[in-house]
Every structure is written in C-alpha cells, then in structure tokens.
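Box 3.1. Reading complex inputs
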Amino acid sequence: MEKIKNPRKILVPAEREKLIPKSGGKEKAYGFHGRAPDESPQRNHIKESGLLMPKQKCYPPVPLTDIRISDPFWSRYLDLVKEVMLPYQWDALNDRIPGAEPSCAVQNFQIAAGLAQGEFQGEVFQDSDVAKWLEAAAYLLAAGPDPELEAVADGMIEIIEKAQRPDGYLDTYFIIKEPKKRWSNLYECHEMYVAGHIIEAAAAYYQATGKRRLLDVACRLADHIESVFGTEPEKIQGYPGHQEIELALVKLYQATQNEKYLALSKFFIDQRGKKPNYFQKEWEGSRDRRTFKTGAPVPPPDLKYNQSHEPVLQQEAAVGHAVRAVYMYSAMADLAREAGDQELLKSCRRLWDNIASKQLYITGGIGATHNGEAFTFAYDLPNDTAYAETCASIGLIFFAHRMLQMDMDSRYGDVMERALYNVVLGSASRDGKRFFYVNPLEVWPKACGGNPDKQHVKPVRQKWFGCACCPPNVARLMASLNQYLYSTDEDTIYTHLYISGEAGIKIAGGEMRLKQESSYPWDGHIKFTVLSALPEDELSLGLRLPGWCRNWSVLFNGKPVPRPVVQKGYLKVAAHWHEGDTVELRLEMPVECLQANPQVRADAGKIAFQRGPLVYCLEECDNGANLSALSVDPGSAFSVFKDSQLLEGAVVIEGKGIRESEDGWGNRLYRPYKAAEKETKIRLIPYFLWANRAPGEMAVWIRRR
Amino acid sequence: MEKIKNPRKILVPAEREKLIPKSGGKEKAYGFHGRAPDESPQRNHIKESGLLMPKQKCYPPVPLTDIRISDPFWSRYLDLVKEVMLPYQWDALNDRIPGAEPSCAVQNFQIAAGLAQGEFQGEVFQDSDVAKWLEAAAYLLAAGPDPELEAVADGMIEIIEKAQRPDGYLDTYFIIKEPKKRWSNLYECHEMYVAGHIIEAAAAYYQATGKRRLLDVACRLADHIESVFGTEPEKIQGYPGHQEIELALVKLYQATQNEKYLALSKFFIDQRGKKPNYFQKEWEGSRDRRTFKTGAPVPPPDLKYNQSHEPVLQQEAAVGHAVRAVYMYSAMADLAREAGDQELLKSCRRLWDNIASKQLYITGGIGATHNGEAFTFAYDLPNDTAYAETCASIGLIFFAHRMLQMDMDSRYGDVMERALYNVVLGSASRDGKRFFYVNPLEVWPKACGGNPDKQHVKPVRQKWFGCACCPPNVARLMASLNQYLYSTDEDTIYTHLYISGEAGIKIAGGEMRLKQESSYPWDGHIKFTVLSALPEDELSLGLRLPGWCRNWSVLFNGKPVPRPVVQKGYLKVAAHWHEGDTVELRLEMPVECLQANPQVRADAGKIAFQRGPLVYCLEECDNGANLSALSVDPGSAFSVFKDSQLLEGAVVIEGKGIRESEDGWGNRLYRPYKAAEKETKIRLIPYFLWANRAPGEMAVWIRRR
C-alpha cells in the first residue's frame, strides 16, 4: 500500500496495523494478547484509481488489542460473555439447550461437510449464527489466551473449511438443499449475508490468533463472489438482499490489504437501487417460483424494505428493515472513509441525522414496526408496538463508530452510548442466557398474548430463537467493546465511552499509556491517570461531554483547567504529559425528566426519566399493575439511591406519583369524568434491568401531571 | 303452527304475521306498502320436540312495514340509500364505477347462469354483495313502490335462479371454478355465508313484494344444505367457517314456518366447537391443500378466529373475528327466543356483557385488531390501530335488537344507538358514495401510509372495496331502520330509538297509531302524539331513557307525569289513550366529558366528548395539525352551537384547549422537560361527520389537563 504523505500524520489503517503490538511486547503486562500471523497476507498493488485516497481527516479507533477493560460495571458483563454467553450459545448452536428452539446451525455445516447425514434445518441464514459466534470467540481470544475455546473454534473452522465447495462457494442451505439454485434468489436467500458474517469472523480470528485457515476460506469465498458479481456483462449485476457483506469486505480488505475486496464492496453499494431494479428483474424472471418460507407465490419485491428503492446517494431517510439499513450505512461510511468519497459521506450524514433526530427511541432503539422489522417515518415512535430490534441497535453502534472515524462529534458517541447502555445491555438477562429480540418501551403482558398486533413483544426474555441473530450479535459486540472506547488523530486521544481500564495508545510516533477509572454509569466522576507517556509533543485528551450532561467540571492534576476548550462536544485538555498526570472529569448526573419532540404523538403529554446515560422505567413489581393509571409531576422531588439488595446495587429513583383510582367503576366501561386520584410512591429502575424479577407491565414514558 | 296459549298475550312471530297489514288496508294512508304473497308458504307441522316453545317473555319488534320514518335527521340518509347508495352500489356490482376496484359480483352470477363467458373473479364470498343489495332493495320496496328498482331486482333474481344448480346448490365460485370441491373447505370458503345472505334477501323480498321466486331459490338451497349437513352419519357434521346462515335460517323459518330451517340453524349452533373439532379434522384431512388466497400450504385452523374453539354454551368472552361473532350471537339469541332455550339465553347475556363492559369502543365499534378483524381481550381498545369494522357494528345492532326481544333493558338500546349514530352513520360519506370499512378513533394520515401496522386505517373513505361487505350492509341496515324503533309486549309499546315518523302498532287486539317528533340527535325534546287508539285497555308507552342522559322530565298532555315509573331504563307512561294525547320527553343534552375505565390503557389520562348519543372528535381542519399536542380541562366551559354553514347544521362544540408549543425544538428529538404551552380554541364535530372536509388528523380521545 502506498504510503500516504500527510503532514498531519493521519493514521490510516495500514499504518495502524503496523503499530498494533504483536506477541512478546510490553503489552503482555496489560494482559494483551496477539500472535504473529502464520504468514503475511497477500497484498495487491493498489491501482491508481484513487479508490483508496482519503480526502478528509480520519480518526482511527484505538484497536481493541491495545485496550483492557477492568470496570466495576462492565467486567461483570464481559465475564458473562466469556463464561456464560459463549459456552451457552455454543450449546445452543449444537442443540443442547433443553426447551429452546433447536438451532441446527452446527449440524448444517456438518452435513454440508459430509461429516453427518440429514436435512438442512433452520432459517436460510442459519450459518451466520455460527459465524457470529466465531467472531465473538475471536475477540475473546484477542483479549487473552483460552486454549479450550480456541480448540473449539478451530474445530468449527475445520468443519466450515470442509463444507466449502471447491470453487469457494459456501452456504449450507444451498449446498444441502438446492445446489442448483445458487444466487437465484438474492432477494430472500441471504447467501451474501452469510458470506459477510463468515468474512467478519475470519478477519477477527486472523487478527486475534494469526491463524489463516478461516481467512483463506473467506478469501476463497469472496473471490468466488467476485467472480460471479460485477459490472462485466457475463457477471450478475445484482447485490445482496440483506446487506452485510459490504462492511465485511472492508474488513477483509483491512486484513489482507487486497483492494479487490474493497472494490467489490463498492460495487455492491454503487449498484444498489439502480434502474432497472435488480430485484424487480429477478422477480419478473421467476413468476412461477414459490416463496422460500411459506410456499406462496413470491410477491413483488418490497424495494424499500432492503433499501434498494433508489441509489444510496439519493436516499434521504432511513427506511425499511432497520438492520439491513444500518449495516449498509456502516459499509457506506467505511467506503466513504477508505475511498474518501465525499458524496457517500454526505449521504451517511444525512441518513444519520434522519435517524438521530427523527426515528430514534429514547432507549437507542430503532425500527418502529415489526412489519418488516423496519423504520417507518419521522416521529413515528410507538412505545407498545415498537420493534427496536437488538441487532438494529448493534448496527447503529457500528454506524456511529464509523462516523466517529470521520466526524469527531459527540453526537455519534451520544447515540452509541444510548444504544449500548439501554437496548443492548437490556437485551440480555442478568444471567446471560436469555435475550430480547424486540425491545419495547411499554409492555402490557396480557396484550403480548392477547393482541396479535403486539405478539412480537415479549414480556420475558427468551431462551433462544429460531431466528437467533441477536444473542450472538450481543456477544460479539460486548467481546469487542474495547474498540469503541478511544480514537486518535495526530494530536488528540478521544474518549467516547467511560469504561474503566488501561490502554496503550499509539500517537505522535510514540505511545501514551492511560488508566481510566470511574463508577460510570452510576456516577459521573471519571479519572484518567497517565501511566507512561512517550511522545514529547503537546497532546490533548478529548473527553466526550455527553449530551445528557448539563453541568460538568474538569481538573488537571487536581486543579481546575483554566480555559477548557470544547469542540463538537469533546472537552480538550492539552498538555505535555508525564507519568502520574491526572485528569478528573465530573459530570453532574441528576435525575432528568425528558420530554419528546411534540411531533412524537406516542409520547405526547408524557415524560421519561434518565440519569446519566441510563433511561429508567416503571415496573409492575415495584409500582403495582396498570402503570398507565400513574402520572408524575416533573417538578416534584425525586430521590436517588443505590439499592444494594436490588439487582446488584443499581441506582433506583423514587418519587411521588398520582394514581387514578379504579374504585367504583363496577361493570362500566365509560362514565362522565370525575377526578378520583390518590398519591402514591413510584419507583423507577434502569431500563436495561427490566424483566429480571417478576414478569409484568413496564413503561418508559409516564403521563405528565 | 300451534297457537300458544298465553294469558299475557305475547305476540309470537306467527301471530304477528297475521297482524301485518297487507295491501288495501288503512295503512295505505301512511304510505305503507305490502302485497299478498303469490301463494301461502308451505308450513310444516311442528314436531312435539319442544323446539318452538317459548319459555320466557318475548317482546316482538313492530315490523318495519308498520312504521314510516319522516325525520329531519334521518330522512336525508334514507333518501340517500334509495337515491344514491342503492343505484351506486348496483353500478359497483356491475363494475361501472371508474377508479373503484371491480366487483364482478353480477358477472359471476351471469357466468354461473350460462349467460356470459369468463372466469370467476373477486373474493370467494363475492355473491353475498349481490344478496345484501337485494335485501336492501327489498326493504325499500316494502316502504313504497318503485317499479324501476323492482324490475332491476327481479332481473337479478332471474339470473340467480338460473345460476342455481338443479340440486339446489348455489355459490358461483364453486360452480364456475371448483365444481368438484363443494363443501370441502368450510373453514375458508364461505359457501354457507353466501347462502345465508341469499336466504336473508329472499325472506325480505318475499315479505316486501309477495314474490316467491327468490324464496323458492332460498328454500331449495336450504333444503340442499339440510341434505348435506346434519347429525346423521351419512351427512357432514360440519358448520360454517363464517357464521351467517344460522340467523338467516331463522328468517327463512319465519317466512315459511317450516321448522326444519330452525332445526338446521340449531344444528349448526349446537355442533359448533364440539370435540373433535370439525375444522381441525378438515385441515388434517387435506394437508396437501394450498390456501385459497395465497397458494401457501393451509396453516392449521385458528379456532378462536371463527368461535369454534369451544361449544357456544361454554364461551365466556367475545373472541375472534368480530363480524362472525356477532352474527353468531344474533343467531343464538334468535334460537334462544324461538326455542325458549334458557342456556343459550344465558350465553347470549354473558357474551353481551363481555362486549358491552369490556370490549366496546365509545363509538360503538368492536374489534380491536385488524389481525383477523377481531376482538382481542378485556379493556384492550387501542385507538389508532382499532379495526372497529362497520359490518361488526351492524352485527352488534342485530345482536342488540334480538336481545331486546327477550330482555327489555335499555342497555341494549343504548349500545344500538351508540353503534348506529357513530360507527354506522360515520362509515358512509355525506354523499353516500364512499365508505369506511375500518372506523378508527384516532388518525394520523401519515401513519396510515407510513406505518404498516396502521395500513388498514384509511384517512378518507374509499369508493368501493375488493372485499365490499360494508357498503351494502350499511344500505340494508338503513333501509330497514324502522324495524329497530319499537317493540311491544301485551300492554306496553317500547320506543328504542328517537326517530320521527308515524307507526301503526298492533297491540292488545287493536291498533294504536302514534306520531313521534323530535330534532334528535341534536335536541333531546321528543313528542309523541296519539293519532288514533283502538285498544280500550290501559296501555303504557315505554320510553328508553338513554344511558348518556342524567336529567330528564316527562309531560303527559302538557302536564308533569306524577309518579313516573322507570323499569330497566324504560320510562313507562300508562294511560287509557285517546286521539290527540301527547307525551313529551325532555332529555337534557349537555356536553359531557367522558373518561374510560382506568383499565383501558389506551385512554389513560384522556377524555372524550359526547352530547346526546353523538360522540365528538377533533379534526385537523378545525384545530391544526398535531392533535396530540392538544389537551383540555374537563372543568372548563364548552359552548354548543348549530353551525348552519358546516355540514348541514351539525351541532358543534367549542371550548378552550392548551397546545404544547412546538417552537424551539430545532433538530432535537428529546430534551429536558420544560413547560411550553399556549391557550388555544378547540372545536369538536360529531364523530360521524369526520373526514367529510379536508383529509387530516382526527382524534376522539383528548389528553385531559
């Protein structure tokens, strides 16, 4: 790769990679882990196409291998990923969880590899669950050795390698069930979605272990896809029905430096939505075909559903299937960054703004309807029929993380934090074995069973899903959480998330080792200590001032910083750093009553409680049944305390509420209004902890008095 | 028919029929119309089974032919039925409405009759639209001669007769498309639903014109069905997938006095829900079958959907498809009355109570979800996703009308009035050419197009529907409205609806001719004048005191009635009546702010406005966009005035509201709460008039301040 001459020392991925510590370095002391690759990946010579010429400033993230999390709040979750989620999900993928829907995902690979007999079972994209699990395992292996886990992963990789066809094709559904129908139903059949997850897993596993076996599988698979799809007349000018491979190919490019993978990703993005529409043509060419799932005649494709209704550069608003959308926007941001494409970046910003200012639940959930698991339109954010899929919020974090690599603006970190601390954390049970796929903001358990419009909403987390995209997605996000904490430019280390631990950050030709400590999210006091500082130049620490924070202060070595500079939501503390220097950030964290934009009909006259990054909710087990009968005066006093008995020390909010009396109604459904209310105590718990005690009603938005 | 010896002179249907005035009587003076039948219908001898032995008191309705409506409010609608709806719907059935979905209903009959070539088109129950139209035409012909309409109807009847198979079978879908598959898919295919509507039309047409042709078709059809279905081992022990024929067979029995039709109806009701379930067996016996509509494999039957999940006597709550449910409950009430079945009556009361006290929208709509057009569960009454199908409210009126024939209790009349004046009236446009199928209580037009969960909700009435059950159902209800006004027992004439006109009411061996006058629903002053009174015994006028009315007074010949007696919501004025006697009822009709039972989550913290029987609503064209930003203090003053400019003199309500300010939000979706409200004027119009001006938002329930 041609070295980019840039006087401001932007660290582009190729440079970054050289700086990633390999085995044997002093990073060992931090428990970092990483091994030299078996051999160097092949690198193609970059064409003079300009494809890879960055045209805007870039803020690369500090790689996950350079950061160790050791946090009173998060370590518990990360341990859970390692000790419970991954083993449990491995059992699930192997159909060993009593009472859960069988996955058959591993078995499908075994059959395709000729190691077992049987029929393909599960969703057409079942393979991806295995891939996501492997990706999560790779992140754990990057954080520290685990020979047992690595042996299991290697075993699985061997099966996957055996399942791959000699030409590189790999998708167990088509290998087992319809070998003649490869690539014939891109709209429904997820072949490239599965390939994308295998590629992501391969890149992560290679970076963590240096082992090439899965990377070689991924390269052969990507090479095969590149031989089938493209602008050339003999190739298919199609693109995936479910976007995912686009961002995966960027990772494959980063792992191999082979530019053709970046070009293939760009082809898929550029081709999408061009007229005549590929999916429309595919459908017209197969009128006699029955739909994969139900056997009914295939209906005409819903082009908005998979964001192929128009070219991406023309898309003004986030529409359609939310996961597809944010995976695609993430790839667009990757390509904008890697190819320096300003038009693509403009589209990314426009689509981001649309989501963040018009289609985002206060919990960081996206996707207002279960119909197509989709975005709807501006300000349409119903609480009790929300979809807000876990995977969609994870994809939103991907998107935010990529936008932060181009625009250093706290709004991206704010959304990342909101989605992470509310939807993503809340999707898993405290024991790591049960998950929400849908993350509603209001639940009436009777309605989940009794009204089919709400049957997608579950009042309790489920063991495993037939369509199990979310649990392994949570695992891979949490296992790679460290990569979301910091990024750098030539003279600033930016902190996006307040999670305790240590980092060795390469910057300005040297390295700064930094310790972060806090009791976040329960407390807003965060302390950074310089453990060692090699660079001699003045550097800044850039600390995200969260959007929820109205008052803050900052100390440098215990003294107020005289003229703190805030740029796009980042507080910058500049200094020539020495070992032992400290920066203390104090974010005031009072209870806030939030209201929604009046255009959000569903939240009219209501308030929601937030403290720090955490959205709060009422639960029936604290407040009695019929939460809709409660209202709250936002001007009244609320007390906050850490309840050591409850949910391992969560901070709860208590205050005064008003409850509509249910007395004297008899058999009546309607009556002339008469005031009949009584004062009551209300208690709110963090949203992410809901449904961990008795099943019951839950509400985030509460009637305002 | 054996004459029932009853000292209290209950008028059973057989007796009633004898009293119905035929041609040439003095009823001519009232414009009543009716001709002697071509010949007497065959009457079977009643078996000694006890099937027809009434065991409880019965309150027969005064037949529609004995009442003429001449009402400042309603005559406009009845003229619309005659002059616009019926001709327009005839055009629709003949595919002559530009821009409307083609019906093909008449064409299907022509093809089945061998009078045209072509394929069956439309829904599997398309025939029923023609039958409902004929039934409505029959009611118009009963009210007065219309040779042109009668000629059109006779022509249609001739085609229907030709379409009928020699064995009596009649259903154009199966005749044209799948002649070998008769009765093989009772769950989906509506053959008996269609038969039921043909039978209803036949009974009405015979009673109106005395012409037997369609009645004979209906008898042959019913006889054929009776030869196919029954408890005998060689017969099918099945029952309809869509209930309707059950109540139709009772009408056929009433028209022919042939008891076997009553017995067949009772068989269908008794058989329903018995174990093993018929539909379950039907499904198990046809695993290879594809579903009628989509071609997908037939899923297992949803037994609650069509109320076959358990025997009707065990059903505790209204569940499933709302129209199916209320049609069935109507038939159950018919059978309870005709067969004196106390257990069936108890079930009817239980199901009625469940609907009226737990599942009824304030507008008289039923069916909380579009998923299966169905009831959900107690207190689940969402406003913006409501289904509240027009046909379901019509069926609820049928059910109420039948319950009134056994329980003289104003609660039935109250619901009948609520459904009639709000949902049914509101379903048709002011010009009678457009209809709502779904009657929501809250509409955000953007959401109807932008959120698939609300795509069933339409912000404007539609021209015609592919599934066009509602428009002809509205027509037949309105054309037969007079039959819902009065009923009698041996010594009381009960008035259920306050609609001006004249009636000749047979009672106590004589006749009382009565004039009713009012400006209802705009005004609560109703005057009854005795035009002539033949009976010499003391008789009572029983006047329904509507549930919405809190203060009333009554005058007899201008003087207060000393000790007015109220029995189950009916005010009884007893007298020896003479020509010129008057009774004046004054129902106070202030603006009422109603609240819903606090268990109704969707209406928590909200109020609805009602005045008299009319529910009111906000519309965007009066109150600006974003109605959810408005709130109202129920204690503030509201003015009422007749707006002669607006919608032909409707009474509108005006008052003070508070509007949440939308200023200063910029691009924000959430912010810390701050009070930002301004006072504004609000204007409410009767719900039934919504969507007659500019399309826009509408809301019945308004946030309470």
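In summary: Chain A is about 35% helix and 20% strand.
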